[in-house]
TrEMBL record, chain A:
CDD domains: TM_PBP2. SUPFAM superfamilies: MetI-like. It is found in: Cell membrane. Coiled coil: none annotated. GO terms for biological process: transmembrane transport. It is a multi-pass membrane protein. GO terms for cellular component: plasma membrane. Residues 26-222 form the ABC transmembrane type-1 domain. This is Tungstate transport system permease protein. Its main location: membrane. It comes from Franzmannia pantelleriensis. The chain crosses the membrane at residues 33-56, 63-85, 97-118, 154-181, 201-225. Keywords: Membrane, Transmembrane, Transmembrane helix.
Automatic annotation (TrEMBL), chain B:
InterPro entries: ABC-Tungstate_binding, PBP_domain. It comes from Franzmannia pantelleriensis. It comes from the Bacteria. This is Tungstate transport system substrate-binding protein. Keywords: Signal. Residues 29-248 form the PBP domain. SUPFAM superfamilies: Periplasmic binding protein-like II. The keyword Transmembrane does not apply. Transmembrane segments: none annotated.
Length: 234, 271
């Protein structure tokens, strides 16, 4: 497997030499995906908890739609955001197309359903256990939400990490709304797609290894912080 | 604590997102083709243009069909593609006010080096296409409405070949992925020379037919209509458009080579 061998060598060289182009691409990838996950978590966690706490007409439909959107193909999300942000579209005035901000928006569309749908499930399960206890404290639903979110934090961290995985791995959405512009909107996944297109398979696979390493680092950091939190509380 | 960890994650996210704010650097967005970008031409000539004018060019490289669509919607300031008929139609439809010849390269027919269809000694390009169809050897087509795909389709049409057989594989991919696929299935493929020269994963593929004048591949720059999309950076885009056909721009294009082989041949002013 000469390509695989070359890929490891390429990945190693890229990392050891701290290739400036690569650093720029890595920084932008993290910037876009972390921002998207942050926004999706700020909206999705309370949204998921609300869906678990409040019953209202059409709630079932909302839950089904959220679950279905977990499987939204990135290229469709990208196309939807493209049509919104295009000059001919409703938000064209903002001039956001082919910028990192457009990429963040597209990834929020992808990550938000995952965070909201999965956190609803976790909170609903927790609510089943705690309902009487919480009600006995005389807490209203709105007051229950922070308690439930806090008690489900370990599971919700995993939910947010799943969202980060989706954001950092997708290529279809950021390619359409970002345009893969060198030095401006080129991220890890679009760079990998480009090098594959150019037939530079070793470099493409090398970049893929760097991306895997990066995602592993983010997950390891979350895991270690979670462990420390558990020990401190223990 | 978990809460502190979440907060620090959020703070990191915000800190990282700070540079997302748009800079007020002068730049235009150029919709162009994958062949020009992937061959490395823009990486070579854009810095020279920036040196002269202080304007950066951000290239969105897509198929010619999509490049037209991006420009039609007002999402790019300038357009550089290779489909002369389509470009003239674009001007006629009022989306662009001017079209200029900038440069050309040529298309080549690539295939497995043992050449089962025997196109290497074909009389001309049409004959080569006919021989591929007659032999029933697999042929991979871009199938993505790109300039290269449009040119390929015109050859089949002229050769009177029906491309519905199982030998004809329409991929719906860019030039690079199509070459990757052709290499994987030992198929014939119609490609622009620039992408081929910059392409690494050739395996058993080789250029089998080239040199017919019919394989000429003209690139044109379009000046987009000011009234249709007034918000675009027309003044900056016009500087780019004029620079491409200026002596300096033409020299920059002529100077770009891979392994000593010139990829694009400037021909501004030839209408």
């Amino acid at each position: 497997m000469p390509i695989a061998d070359n890929a490891f060598a390429t990945a190693l060289t890229l990392i050891v030499t701290l290739d400036p182009t690569l650093l720029n691409i890595v920084r932008l990838s993290l910037q876009v995906s972390l921002s998207a996950v942050l926004i999706a978590a700020l909206i999705g966690l309370p949204l998921g908890a609300s869906l678990a706490l409040w019953a209202f007409p059409g709630r079932g439909a909302v839950v089904v739609v959220l679950n279905a959107f977990m499987g939204l193909p990135p290229v469709v999300a990208g196309l939807m955001v493209y049509l919104m942000l295009s000059r001919a579209g409703p938000l064209g005035e903002l001039g956001l197309l082919f910028t990192p901000t457009a990429m963040v928006i597209a990834q929020v569309v992808l990550v938000l359903p995952i965070v909201a749908a999965l956190s609803r499930q976790h909170i609903e399960a927790l609510l089943g256990e705690y309902r009487e206890q919480l009600a006995s404290f005389g807490l209203g639903r709105a007051r229950m939400m922070p308690t439930l979110l806090w008690d489900a934090r370990v599971a919700l961290t995993t939910v947010v990490l799943a969202g980060f995985g989706r954001a950092s791995a997708e290529v279809g959405a950021v390619l359409i709304v970002g345009g893969n512009i060198d030095g401006v909107t080129r991220v890890m996944t679009t760079a990998i797609a480009l090098e594959t297109n150019r037939g530079n398979l070793a470099l493409a696979l090398g970049l893929g290894l760097v991306l895997l390493l990066l995602v592993a680092c983010v997950n390891a950091a979350a895991h270690l912080l979670g462990e420390r939190a558990r020990r401190q509380m223990g | 604590m978990q809460r502190r960890h979440l907060l620090s994650t959020f703070a990191l996210g915000i800190a990282l997102s700070a540079p997302l704010a748009a800079d007020d650097e002068r730049y235009i967005t150029l919709a162009s083709t994958t062949s020009t970008e992937q061959s490395g031409l823009f990486a070579d000539i854009v810095p020279q243009f920036r040196e002269t004018t202080g304007i950066d060019v951000r290239v969105v490289a897509v198929g010619t069909g999509q490049a037209f669509e991006i420009a039609r919607r007002g999402d790019a300031d300038s357009l550089l593609v290779h489909d002369t008929q389509g470009e003239e139609q674009f001007v006629a439809d009022g989306y662009a006010s001017e079209r200029l010849d900038v440069m050309y390269n040529d298309f080549v027919l690539i295939g497995p080096s043992d050449d089962p269809a025997g196109i290497a000694d074909a009389d001309d390009a049409l004959d080569a296409f006919s021989r591929i169809a007659a032999s029933g050897s697999p042929f991979t087509s871009r199938g993505d409405d790109s300039g290269t795909h449009r040119a390929e389709q015109r050859f089949w049409e002229e050769a009177g070949v029906d491309t519905t057989g199982g030998w004809y594989r329409e991929l719906g991919s860019g030039m690079g992925p199509t070459l990757n696929t052709a290499a994987g299935m030992d198929a014939y493929v119609f490609a622009d020379r620039a992408t081929w020269l910059a392409f690494d994963n050739r395996q058993d593929l080789a250029i089998l037919f080239e040199g017919d004048e019919a394989l000429f591949n003209q690139y044109g720059s379009l000046l987009l209509d000011r009234e249709r999309h007034p918000h675009l950076k027309h003044d900056l885009a016009e500087q780019w458009h004029q620079w491409l056909v200026s002596d300096e721009g033409q020299a920059a294009i002529a100077g770009y080579a891979i392994d000593g082989e010139q990829l694009f041949f400037p021909n501004a002013g030839h209408h």
